[in-house]
Known about the structure:
- The chain is mainly β.
Amino acid sequence: MERPNxxxxxxxxxxxxxxxxxxxxxxxxxxxxxxxxxxxxxxxAEVHFTDGCGDLQVLxxxxxxxxxxxxxxxxxxxxxxx
Length: 82
């Protein structure tokens, strides 16, 4: 996870056999990501849209994370090694 500024969050996800995916959140209103999230296993996710914002809630094996933001971008690395 990266936090270049208070309104931006970047998550990089390693997907075995597919490569690296990057989720970039802009206009971040709230973020809750525990330190234990790095390297944890993504089990389940829900996205809700309210008040012009997306609310991503992710259940990890050992924790949970939540990001509320007005914009999100998804990018795939050209390197398929994972």
